Amino acid sequence: MYQATDLADALISQRFSHKRIDDLFANPISADKDAYYAKNLFLNLSTLSPYVSGPNSVKIATPLKELAAQNIKINKSYLVSCTNSRASDLAAAARVFREASPAKIPDSVKFYIAAASMPEQTAAEEAGDWQVMLDANAVALPAGCGPCIGLGTGLLEPGEVGISASNRNFKGRMGSPAAKAYLASPEVVAASALAGKIIGPGWYQQPEGASSVVMGEGDGVKEEERMITAEEALEKIIGQLDNVIKTAEAERDIVPEAKTTEIEILPGFPSKIEGELVFCDADNINTDGIYPGKWTYQDDITPQKMSEVCFENYDPAFRDTVIDGDLLVSGYNFGCGSSREQAATAILAKKIPLVIAGSFGNIFSRNSINNALMTLELPRLVHRLRETFSSNEIVSQQNNTREPSRNHESLDSPPPAPQSSPEKEKKLTRRTGWKFTWDIRRSTVTVKEGDNGPTWNQTVAALPPNVQDIIASGGLEKWVKKQIGGS
Question: Quick one: pLDDT at residue 399?
Answer without folding.
Answer: 40
